[in-house]
């Protein structure tokens, strides 16, 4: 749903104030979508894994140990790159863990009541949405 003219003016004023107040932060925020960058790195990682396996197989066919090791290192580097950027690319959320001494008691209770604990946040967001568009 597009913003109204009033909301667009307010947003532009906030952006101008941000640029005037802290230009370095504004430029870092404006650089682009982080999820898009993470997806690109995930794709590069997958490509590196494929290329690495191809070089590894080529090294095995050519009976060249250094070429096989190089292929393994390329594939491993691609896998590491993919794993490091997977969460940012997909928006996946890691489960939160409790303190080191907590072995399932409180965290299991949190797991069972997860839906109930998120409900107030959802209600607040829905209320804000209604207030914004009722005006």
UniProtKB/TrEMBL annotation:
Q: Does the keyword Transmembrane helix apply?
A: yes
The record's InterPro entries line, in alphabetical order, gives:
DUF3040 (IPR021401)
Q: Please give the coiled-coil regions recorded for this protein.
A: none
Q: Which residues cross the membrane?
A: 44-61, 67-86
Superkingdom of origin organism:
Bacteria
Q: Keywords of this protein's UniProt record, alphabetized?
A: Membrane, Transmembrane, Transmembrane helix
Disordered: region residues: 92-135
> For bias kind Basic and acidic residues, which ranges apply?
123-135
**What protein am I looking at?**
Putative transmembrane protein
Look up and give the organism this protein is from. Blastococcus saxobsidens (strain DD2)
Its lineage reads: Bacteria, Bacillati, Actinomycetota, Actinomycetes, Geodermatophilales
């Amino acid at each position: 749903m597009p913003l109204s003219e009033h909301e667009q003016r307010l947003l532009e004023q906030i952006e101008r104030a941000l640029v005037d107040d802290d230009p370095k932060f504004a430029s870092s925020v404006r650089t682009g979508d982080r999820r898009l960058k993470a997806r690109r790195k995930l794709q590069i990682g997958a490509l590196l894994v494929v290329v690495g396996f191809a070089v590894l197989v080529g090294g095995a066919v050519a009976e060249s140990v250094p070429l096989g090791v190089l292929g393994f290192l390329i594939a491993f580097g691609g896998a590491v790159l993919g794993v490091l950027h997977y969460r940012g690319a997909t928006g996946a959320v890691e489960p939160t863990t409790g303190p080191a001494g907590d072995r399932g008691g409180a965290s299991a209770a949190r797991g069972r009541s997860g839906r109930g604990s998120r409900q107030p946040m959802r209600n607040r967001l829905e209320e804000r949405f209604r207030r914004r568009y009722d005006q």
